Each structure stands twice: as C-alpha cells, then as structure tokens.
Amino acid sequence: MSNSVKIIPRPGAYEHPFSGLGLEFDPLGVQADRTGLVLHETGYDRANSHWNFPSVLSPFWRVYYNAERSHCIVFGDAFYELGPDHIVLIPDHQLFHCLGQRPTPAFWVHFSFDQKPASDQPIPILLKPGKAELGLINSIRPLMQENSVPAERIRRLSLALLNVLVSRPEIRWRPALPVQLTMLIRHIDENAGRKIPNEELAKLAGISVEGIYRMFRNHLGASPTNYISQIRIRKASHLLKQNEYGIDEIAELTGFPNRAYFSRVFKQITGMSPGSYRTSL
C-alpha cells in the first residue's frame, strides 16, 4: 500500500461493525434468528470519499454496491472495482484493502451469517445485480436521506436484500445444518423467554443430552446454554432500542432471572452494558 494514501480511521473499517456513518442495528455477538442472519448496519453515502483502509480483517460480512465506477477492493494482488455491474459480498475474517478517493455514491451493509462459503467458493463473491436486489437497494437509499429515518422499514428491506443475496445459486456453501438442529434453533427462538433445559432439547430431537451438547458445539461453536443466552441477548437488544421497557422488565421478558445476571451476560456477549447500549443508540 502506498505511503501517500490518506487514511481516515473509522471503526467500521476493522473490528467494529458500526462505522458512525450508517444506521446501526444489532451489535456483534448477537445470535442469528432462524434465517441465520444478523443485521449490524446499513449505510448510504452520496459522496463517499477517502475510502482508503489498509489490511481490513473483520469478524462480520459486508455488502458493497456503488452506482458509479470508482473505489476498489484488493485481495492479494487482485483488484476488484466497485461499480454498477456487480454487488460484492465479503465474508467474515477475510483480509483485503480498500482504495478510493473520488467522491462516489456508496451503499453498504454489515451483517453476520451462520453459514460459511464452501472452500472452493471464490472470494470476494461478485454477483450481477438482479431486479430484486436493485429494487431493494433503490428502495433503501432514499430512506437513508430522510430527516426522520424509518429505521424499522430499513431493517426489513435490508434483511430482505440479504436473504435474496445469500440465496443466489452462484454461491456455494458448506453443508447445511442437521434437520434436528434447525428444529431446535426454531424452538429456542420461539421460547427464549422461558427456561429451556437441555433435557427438553434432547427429548425434542430424540437424542441424548450428550448428543445435543456435541451437535451444538460441532455446528454452532457454542454449548446449548451459551447459544440460548445469545438468542436472548439478540431479543433484548431489540427491546432496548424501543425505550418502552426498563432494563429489569427486559431481563424478565428475555428469560433472565434478574437484572444483574442479564447485565453480566449482555456485556460478555456485546462488550457493552445494557444501559450503555441503550444510550449509544
């Protein structure tokens, strides 16, 4: 990378999904719902300039779409120009560089996804924009410029866009989760407000408690207890944004025995206390 490149540090360029320029949704560490997706940020900048970030390596996925040819991303020795001909998807934990100084209309989404690309899937993932994708992007961009940004509508449209993108047949994925685990994920999502013992999950899946533990660890990288806590924190983060409930009420609604335990788990997963998260919105 050239020493003459002007670097403007922004948290969204590296380990943090909130850039300070987009509309913020769920923080890192929040567990996905049944779609496997967690939306972190949607952004649109009509004149994005000084887009120079060396050695980006982030724990979340990115979508980039520029309506004009300008900025580029660099993977190894390969340069990929951003422009109207393709939508770019970059999985988590991929090393790349960002280059661009000319003011350019830029659209982006930061998100997490519980599926992983197959080992032979080319990275970055370049997708020719279809009518569905362009329609959703063109619906989101003007909303981002309104005086009172309709956050919930943008959330729904952004998640619709992500679902369309990850469903594209050009993308090759690792094998899907076992049917039993998919069923348990749905069950947890629907019942996270109450106690869900491992014995209940084992009975539903028709396997032993030890088998449940192994299945969660092997496929989700977390024990059943930790996974349930992550689901509860995702639901709690939504409630914290609404300012309708106090923190004690949110702890009760999301299945935690008390505020202290809820606050401890929330901070362990998101890096922020519930109060700090609410005031940061």
From TrEMBL:
One of the entry's Gene Ontology molecular-function terms is: DNA-binding transcription factor activity
Ordered alphabetically, the record's keywords are: DNA-binding, Transcription, Transcription regulation
| Entry-linked Pfam families | HTH_18 (PF12833)
Domain HTH araC/xylS-type per the UniProt entry, residue ranges:
182-280
Q: What is this protein called?
A: HTH-type transcriptional activator Btr
Source organism of this protein record: Pontiella sulfatireligans
Q: What is the lineage of its organism?
A: Bacteria, Pseudomonadati, Kiritimatiellota, Kiritimatiellia, Kiritimatiellales
